[in-house]
Amino acid sequence: MHVFLYEWVTGGGLVDEHGRLPRSLLAEGSAMITALAADFLGVDGARVSLLRDMRLDHLAFPGCDVVDVYSSSHWADEFERLAGQADHTLVIAPEFDGILQQAVQRAARAGGRSLNAADEFIQLAADKHATAERLRSAGVAAPHGRVLEADVDKLPTDFEYPAVLKPLDGAGSQHLLLVGGPRDEPPPYPWRRRLERRHAGRAASASV
């Protein structure tokens, strides 16, 4: 069984961008791709291929077939080649800007057999407010929240604080803020955000 694993940050999704890769996304992406590669290699007869941004040659994937990519065109060629050749493809990418959905669709167009969720599910999960409301409507506990429009710099007074302010399609905890009350003045943000009640709990990540 040949499995193609693709993670956006480590796998060349930003290969043409100058400067440092986003720290939080790189840390999370590295952890996820490393863990998944090890899990698949533990399956008898499994062969794992993946892409790696040429700047991350220190990031080792023992036992995997690693292709270093050096430009966006090279990335596109290798992504489509591996997706088309592999028995299964699994894409790991942030939801913002439709990155995850577009990568999964690209793999499908190349003939890939996806292990990702269906397109409709990805679209729903990319919207944090829509996801929370869908869970609540199904009887699953989820924080109460509301959507704030782009560039809003005043918080509502009729909301229960403390609260968390986050982009609707954010990832890697980027642009996430803890606000204590309506007098707080979070910086303007050019996209819609979700304001939700803060609940104490344990930090965790889950894959379905």
Architecture overview:
The protein is α/β, with parallel strands linked by helices. The chain has 2 domains: 2-124, Rossmann fold, CATH 3.40.50; 128-197. The chain is 29% helix and 19% strand. The chain is built from 5 helices and 8 strands. The strands form 2 sheets. The chain has a 4-stranded parallel beta sheet with strand order 3-2-1-4, sandwiched between helices. Strands 5-8-6-7 form a 4-stranded antiparallel beta sheet, covered by helices on one side. α1 links the parallel β1 and β2. The radius of gyration is 19 Å and the shape is elongated. The chain starts with a strand and ends in an 11-residue tail after the last strand. 27% of the residues are buried.
How is the topology of this model organized?
Layout: E1 2-7, H1 23-41, E2 47-53, E3 65-69, H2 72-85, E4 88-92, H3 99-109, H4 119-125, H5 128-137, E5 145-148, E6 163-167, E7 177-179, E8 193-197
Parallel strand pairs: 1-2, 1-4, 2-3
Antiparallel strand pairs: 5-8, 6-7, 6-8
